[in-house]
Design brief:
Layout lengths: L1 E8 L2 E8 L3 E5 L10 H10 L7 H4 L6 E6 L7 H14 L7 E6 L8 H8 L1 H6 L2 E4 L8 E6 L5 E5 H5 L2 E7 L2 E2 L3 E2 L13 H12 L3 H4 L6 H13 L3 E7 L5 E7 L3 H14 E4 L3 E6 L8 H4 L1 H6 L3 E10 L12 H5 L4 H10 L5 H14 L3 E6 L5 H6 L3 E2 L3 H12 L5 E4 L6 E4 L3
Parallel strand pairs: 3-19, 4-5, 4-9, 5-6, 9-12, 14-20, 15-16, 15-19, 16-17, 17-18
Antiparallel strand pairs: 1-2, 7-8, 10-11, 12-13
Length: about 425
C-alpha cells in the first residue's frame, strides 16, 4: 500500500508516495505550543537573566551599545525582541541614538534593506542610530585582537569592538558546527572575519556528526566562546521556537549560562527519537532553504540515522543556488574529509569555511550514503558537480533511493530536518 507524505519545501509542501509497510517512522520537531504572550515572555527573560545582574548593571560600562542580530537565514523574531530591548536600554539611560544594530551575517551575503526591516521591524530600524551589515571580507572594517590560546586568529567587526556594551539576539537549535546555535555564535562566526570563522569551522570538520551535532560541550563551541569572551560579549537574548517559528521560551543573560539553559529546551523540542537507522532517508532542509550552504543542514542530520551504504532523497528548493559567497563548494564538490584535508594542505582550497562545509556533507555523501537531490534552484549540471545524483521531481528522488536499496529496505522520513536532532533509540 502506498502512503502519501507531505515534505516541507520552502513555505509550502511537496508530496511523495512511499510504500507504507517499509516506513519505520515519520518524525519532525515535537509539537509544542507557542507562548500565547510572547512579549511577556521576553520581558520575563529580561527581568530574570541567567547568570547575569541585568541591563542596569551593564549600563555602568558606558552608553555606546551594539545589538548583534542574526540574519535572514534564521527565524528569530527579532522584530518582537529588539523594540522591547531598546525600551529596557532607554530605562537604564541608554538612548536610541547610542545604539547600533549589526546584522551578524557570518559569511552569508549582505541583507537587503527590506530583509533587514522584515527581520528587526520598521520601529527598531527607524529608532536606532545605524543598522549595519557585517562584511566578513572587508579587512578595513575588522580589528585584529590577536589569537586564542589554541591559536585561532581573532578578527572582529570594528563597530562591535569599539562599543561599550555588546548584546546578542538569536535562537537555539541543534547545529553541526557548534553543537547548537545561539550564545557565542552571534560573535563567531556572526561578526568575525573569514580567518576566524575558517579556523573554528575547519576544527569542526575533524569531528563526526555524532560528536558535534546536539552536543553542547564540544571543542568548537568552547573555541567560539573564547572568541566571544575576548570580544566582550556582555549579554544574550536567545529564543527557542517551535516548528511554526513561534516563541516557546526566551533565555537572557550570560552568553554561556543562559545559552546552556536554552539548550535544554531546544533539545526537548528538536531531539526526536527514531526506532533504528534506515536504509533510505527522505529529508528536507526547512527552514534553511535559501541555498545549499544553508540547506546542507538537512544532510548533516541524516548522518546520525542513515545506514552505511544507504540512500538519501534530499528535497530542497535552494532558490539562490549552491553558495554564491563560497564558490569553492561548487568548484570542488562534496568529498571525504581526507580528500578535503589534502586540498587544504596543498593550498588549493584556502577558504576553510568552505572546506569544512564540503567535508561535513562529504562525511555523508562521499563516505556513508548516496544522495539524490531534487531542487528547483540547482541545475542538473551543478548537482553532478556537487557529486550528488540528480532527480527531476521529488518522487523521482524517492524512487531512485528505493530502487538502489531494494524491496526490503526500511524508510525514515525526517521533516524540518535542518533543525532536527534525530536520536536512535537505545536497546
Amino acid at each position: 500500500m502506498k502512503r502519501t507524505v507531505k515534505i516541507p519545501y520552502g513555505s509550502d509542501f511537496v508530496e511523495v508516495e512511499l510504500p507504507e509497510e517499509r516506513i519505520i517512522a515519520i518524525v519532525g520537531p515535537k509539537e509544542v505550543e507557542g507562548n500565547p504572550h510572547p512579549e511577556d515572555e521576553i520581558e520575563s527573560a529580561l527581568d530574570n537573566p541567567v547568570g547575569h545582574p541585568g541591563l542596569r548593571a551593564l549600563a555602568k560600562k558606558g552608553r555606546k551599545t551594539v545589538i548583534l542580530c542574526d540574519d535572514f537565514t534564521r527565524p528569530t523574531p527579532a522584530y518582537k525582541i529588539i523594540p522591547i530591548l531598546l525600551d529596557r536600554l532607554n530605562s537604564v539611560g541608554i538612548r536610541d541614538e547610542d545604539v547600533k544594530i549589526v546584522m551578524a551575517l557570518g559569511t552569508h551575503r549582505p541583507m537587503r534593506r527590506d530583509e533587514i526591516v522584515e527581520k528587526i521591524g520598521e520601529e527598531a530600524f527607524e529608532r536606532v542610530n545605524e543598522v549595519i551589515n557585517h562584511d566578513w571580507k572587508d579587512r578595513d572594517s575588522l580589528m585584529n585582537l590577536g589569537r586564542t590560546p589554541n591559536g585561532t586568529p581573532i578578527t572582529v567587526n570594528r563597530h562591535v569592538v569599539e562599543a561599550d556594551i555588546k548584546i546578542g539576539v538569536g535562537y537555539i537549535v541543534p547545529h553541526r558546527v557548534a553543537g547548537y546555535t545561539g550564545g557565542a555564535k552571534i560573535v563567531q562566526p556572526g561578526v568575525c572575519g573569514g580567518d576566524t570563522t575558517g579556523y573554528t569551522h575547519w576544527l569542526s570538520a575533524k569531528f563526526t556528526g555524532e560528536e558535534i551535532l546536539g552536543v553542547a560541550e564540544n571543542p568548537v563551541r568552547h573555541e567560539m566562546e573564547e572568541v566571544a569572551r575576548r570580544v566582550g560579549l556582555d549579554f544574550i537574548v536567545n529564543t527557542v521556537l517551535n516548528a511554526k517559528g513561534e516563541i516557546v521560551k526566551v533565555f537572557a543573560g550570560d552568553f554561556v549560562k543562559a545559552h546552556r539553559e536554552g539548550v535544554k529546551e531546544a533539545r526537548r523540542i528538536y531531539g526526536v527519537e527514531v526506532p533504528s537507522k534506515a536504509d533510505v532517508v527522505v529529508c528536507d532542509s526547512h527552514p534553511c532553504d535559501v541555498d545549499m550552504w544553508q540547506a546542507a543542514k538537512g544532510i548533516y542530520a541524516t548522518e546520525l540515522v542513515v545506514k552505511e551504504g544507504g540512500s538519501i532523497a534530499f528535497i530542497t528548493p535552494c532558490w539562490e543556488g549552491v553558495s554564491p559567497e563560497h564558490p569553492d563548494v561548487l568548484k570542488f564538490g562534496y568529498m571525504s574529509y581526507e580528500n578535503v584535508k589534502k586540498l587544504v594542505e596543498s593550498g588549493r582550497l584556502k577558504d576553510l569555511s568552505a572546506a569544512a562545509h564540503i567535508a561535513h556533507v562529504g562525511r555523508v555523501s562521499a563516505e556513508k550514503a548516496r544522495v539524490i537531490l531534487y531542487s528547483e534552484g540547482i541545475s542538473r549540471e551543478d548537482t553532478l558537480k556537487l557529486n550528488f545524483e540528480y532527480a527531476e521531481s521529488p518522487q523521482e528522488a524517492v524512487d531512485k533511493a528505493l530502487a538502489k536499496q531494494g524491496p526490503n529496505s526500511k524508510i525514515l522520513v525526517l521533516k524540518n530536518t535542518a533543525e532536527l536532532l534525530p536520536l536512535v533509540a537505545k536497546g
